[in-house]
Design brief:
This protein is 32% helix and 15% strand. With 194 residues, the protein is α+β, with helices and mostly antiparallel strands. Strands 6-1-8 form a three-stranded mixed sheet. It has a three-stranded antiparallel sheet with strand order 2-5-7. Bound molecules: iron/sulfur cluster (2 copies). One iron/sulfur cluster (SF4) binds next to helix 3.
Length: 194
């Protein structure tokens, strides 16, 4: 019948409209900004840098390798590598970013920086209220604003963060085993038997 699709659509709209007065699940609007809808696990917006422990500077995972800066399609990451080194999560001395800025007016939330980072140091945040009244410098997110704890990462992406932790723990255990094997003197070969 001509127009049956329209009638079915109108029926769904009417059912949701009337139902929204009785069932909270049918009410899809919220009183923003007092209320906020929960975001799904895989929601992403702009990147942030992860640090371990409670020290945002010493615990920063980023080693300033600049792979993300090179691979970012709109070139909105700006990094200056440090002159000195600090131990990374495996105790290996590494450079760190003296400067790490992201221009949020250019970032297109593609997540390529996350995918190319070999150190699990940069992940996608869920923060979306980042509008600014000023232009230029105000649109740059500095290292201090970008740095967030691994605990925060777990709070916004619990499944993904647990997988990353397991991967890092496995890598650290493998490195420790390799170091131990290298430090153990080789045993004398057994005497030949007759
Ligand atoms: S999400 Fe994409 S555009 Fe934004 S900083 Fe990462 S690579 Fe660049
Ligand atoms: S975030 Fe990752 S890819 Fe980018 S500079 Fe730091 S360690 Fe390298």
């Amino acid at each position: 019948m001509i127009g049956s699709g329209i009638l079915k659509g109108m029926a769904v709209t009417a059912r949701n409209f009337v139902g929204s007065y009785f069932e909270k699940d049918r009410l899809i609007t919220v009183q923003y900004p007092e209320e906020r809808s929960p975001l799904p696990e895989n929601y992403r917006n702009f990147p942030f840098l992860i640090y371990d422990t409670d020290d945002a500077e010493a615990g920063l995972r980023c080693v300033a390798c600049k792979i993300c800066e090179k691979e970012c399609p709109p070139q909105c990451i700006y990094i200056i590598k440090s002159d000195d080194k600090k131990p990374d999560y495996m105790g290996k001395p590494q450079f760190y970013p003296a400067v790490f800025d992201i221009d949020i007016s250019v970032c297109m939330s593609c997540q390529i920086c996350v995918e190319v980072c070999p150190f699990e140091a940069i992940k996608m945040d869920k923060v979306y209220e980042l509008s600014r009244r000023e232009r230029f410098d105000a649109l740059l997110q500095r290292k201090s604003e970008l740095s967030k704890s691994n605990t925060y990462y777990h709070s916004i992406h619990p499944i993904e963060a647990a997988e990353v932790d397991a991967k890092l723990a496995e890598a650290a255990a493998a490195a420790a085993a390799k170091k131990k094997a290298a430090a153990t003197p080789p045993t004398a070969s057994a005497a030949p038997t007759n």
